C-alpha cells in the first residue's frame, strides 16, 4: 500500500498527514444526525441519500425516514409506495428502490444484520464501492477506503494528478491512494475528514488553502494553481425530449381531485405517480390527442404553460394542459388511474417534475379563478 505513496515521494509524510487531518476534523466537524450514532443502518441510509444530494437537504429527509423506518426490518416491511413517498423530492429514485430491495435481502439472508465487510456489502443491490467503504469504515471501523467527488478533488490537488479524473487510469489511482492513506485506527473519521475537507475547505473554485490542515503536503498548492485541478472535461449536451402532461381534474365532495397514475416501469422515475403524460425523444411535440387516447377520453384541454426540467442526461420540455371533467368516463386503463384530493398530491410519491407541474397548474388555476 505504501508503495503507491512512495511513487509520489511520500515516506514519513503519511503519519503526519493522517494526524493533522484527523485533529482538524475532530474540532471542525459538523454535527449531523447520522454522525457518531454507531448504527450501520443509519450510516447506510445517510450515505445513499447523500449521493447526488446536498447535506442541508438530506438532514430533513433523513430524520423523517428514520422516524418512519427506524430499523432495517421496518424498511423491509414497508411497501414501495410508502418508500417512494418519503423519498419524494430527493430525486434519483433508483436509490430508494435499491435501498428497499437491499433491506429485504438483509432481513431474508442475514437475519437483519447488515454485512460488515466491503465484499459482503457489495452483494447488496445499489451498494457500490463508495457506499460499501463508507459503511465498513464509519459503522464498523474497518480500514476500507472511500472515493467520492470531494475525495477525488482533494487527492487530485494533493498529488497533482493530471488528466480526466473519470479516466480508468485516474480512477485506479484515486482508489489506490485512498487505500494507502486511510488511517487503520480511525478509518471512519479519516474518511469523513477527507470528504469534509473537500466540501468545506478544498472547494471546487476557491480552495481555502491558507487554513488547510494539509497544505504542507499539497503539490497542487505548491504548484500555485490548485483550483485548476482536477482537470474537468466537458460533458456532452443533454438530449432533448418533449412531453405533454394533462392535469385532469374534477370537483369531488371535498374539493378538487386530480387524476394520477404510476409511471410505467422501465424508464426514468418508473413507478412514481404522475399526471397523464406522453413523451418522446427528440424535438417533436407529442399531440394532445395522444394523451386523450391513452386515457380513452374526449375533451378540450386548456393550455396552462410550459416548463423545462433537466435530468442527468436529458433536457425535457413539457407542455402542461388542464382538463376539467364533469363526469368520470370509462378509462381505457382503469387499473392505472386514480383520483387524489388536490392537497394529497404534494405529499404522494411524485417526482420533482410532477411537483413543478402541479405548482404551475395551481398558479394558473388561481389566476383563472
Ligand atoms: Fe486543497 Fe489547498 Fe488544502 Fe491543497 S492546500 S488540499 S488545494 S485546500
* Helix residue percentage: 40-55%
Q: Regions with pLDDT < 50 over 5+ consecutive residues? A: none
End-to-end span in angstroms?
Answer: 69 Å
Number of strands: 7
Strand content: 5-15%
User: H/E series, N to C?
Assistant: HHHHHHHHHHHHHEEEEHEEEHH
Largest sheet: 7 strands, mixed
Quickly count the helices. 16
Bound molecules: iron/sulfur cluster
What structural class do you assign from the helix and strand content? alpha+beta
User: For the residues shown, what is the average pLDDT?
Assistant: 91
Q: Roughly how many Å is the radius of gyration? A: 25 Å
Outline type: elongated
Topology:
Layout: H1 2-6, H2 13-28, H3 40-50, H4 55-68, H5 72-77, H6 80-87, H7 94-110, H8 118-122, H9 129-139, H10 149-158, H11 168-181, H12 187-200, H13 219-223, E1 239-252, E2 255-262, E3 273-274, E4 277-281, H14 288-295, E5 302-310, E6 314-324, E7 338-341, H15 342-345, H16 352-368
The structure holds iron/sulfur cluster.
The site of iron/sulfur cluster (SF4) has 15 residues, from helix 10 and helix 13.
Brief sketch in words of this structure:
The chain is built from 16 helices and seven strands.
What does this 3D model show about the protein?
It contains 16 helices and seven strands. It is α+β, with helices and mostly antiparallel strands and 369 residues long. Strands 1, 2, 3, 4, 5, 6 and 7 form a seven-stranded mixed sheet that branches. The chain is elongated, with a radius of gyration of 25 Å. The model has no long low-confidence stretch (mean pLDDT 91). Iron/sulfur cluster (SF4) binds at residues 154, 157-158, 201-202, 207-209, 212, 214-215, 218, 220-221, 226. Residues 154, 157-158, 201-202, 207-209, 212, 214-215, 218, 220-221, 226 line the site of iron/sulfur cluster (SF4).
Amino acid at each position: 500500500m505504501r508503495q503507491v505513496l512512495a511513487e509520489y515521494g511520500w515516506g514519513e509524510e503519511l503519519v503526519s498527514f493522517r494526524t493533522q487531518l484527523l485533529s482538524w476534523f475532530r474540532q471542525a466537524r459538523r454535527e449531523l444526525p447520522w454522525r457518531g450514532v454507531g448504527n450501520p443502518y443509519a450510516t447506510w441510509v445517510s450515505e445513499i441519500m447523500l449521493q447526488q444530494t446536498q447535506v442541508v437537504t438530506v438532514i430533513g429527509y433523513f430524520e423523517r425516514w428514520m422516524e418512519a423506518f427506524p430499523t432495517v426490518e421496518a424498511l423491509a416491511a414497508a411497501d414501495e409506495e410508502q418508500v417512494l413517498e418519503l423519498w419524494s423530492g430527493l430525486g434519483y429514485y433508483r436509490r430508494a428502490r435499491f435501498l428497499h430491495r437491499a433491506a429485504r435481502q438483509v432481513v431474508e439472508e442475514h437475519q437483519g444484520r447488515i454485512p460488515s465487510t466491503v465484499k459482503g456489502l457489495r452483494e447488496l443491490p445499489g451498494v457500490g464501492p463508495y457506499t460499501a467503504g463508507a459503511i465498513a469504515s464509519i459503522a464498523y471501523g474497518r480500514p476500507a477506503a472511500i472515493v467520492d467527488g470531494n475525495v477525488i478533488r482533494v487527492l487530485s490537488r494533493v498529488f497533482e494528478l493530471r488528466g480526466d479524473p473519470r479516466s480508468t487510469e485516474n480512477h485506479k489511482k484515486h482508489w489506490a491512494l485512498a487505500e494507502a492513506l486511510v488511517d487503520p485506527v480511525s478509518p471512519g473519521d479519516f474518511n469523513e475528514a477527507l470528504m469534509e475537507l473537500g466540501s468545506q475547505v478544498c472547494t471546487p473554485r476557491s480552495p481555502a488553502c491558507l487554513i488547510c490542515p494539509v497544505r504542507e503536503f499539497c503539490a497542487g498548492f505548491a504548484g500555485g494553481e490548485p483550483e485548476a485541478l482536477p482537470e474537468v472535461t466537458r460533458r456532452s449536451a443533454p438530449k432533448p425530449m418533449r412531453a405533454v402532461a394533462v392535469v385532469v381534474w374534477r370537483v369531488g365532495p371535498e374539493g378538487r381531485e386530480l387524476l394520477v397514475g404510476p409511471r410505467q416501469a422501465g424508464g426514468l422515475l418508473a413507478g412514481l405517480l404522475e399526471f397523464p403524460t406522453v413523451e418522446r425523444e427528440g424535438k417533436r411535440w407529442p399531440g394532445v390527442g395522444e394523451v386523450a387516447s391513452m386515457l380513452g377520453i374526449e375533451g378540450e384541454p386548456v393550455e396552462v404553460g410550459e416548463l423545462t426540467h433537466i435530468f442527468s442526461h436529458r433536457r425535457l420540455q413539457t407542455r402542461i394542459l388542464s382538463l376539467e371533467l364533469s363526469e368520470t368516463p370509462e378509462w381505457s386503463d382503469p387499473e392505472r388511474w386514480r383520483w387524489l384530493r388536490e392537497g394529497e398530491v404534494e405529499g404522494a410519491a411524485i417526482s420533482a417534475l410532477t411537483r413543478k407541474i402541479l405548482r404551475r397548474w395551481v398558479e394558473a388555476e388561481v389566476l383563472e379563478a
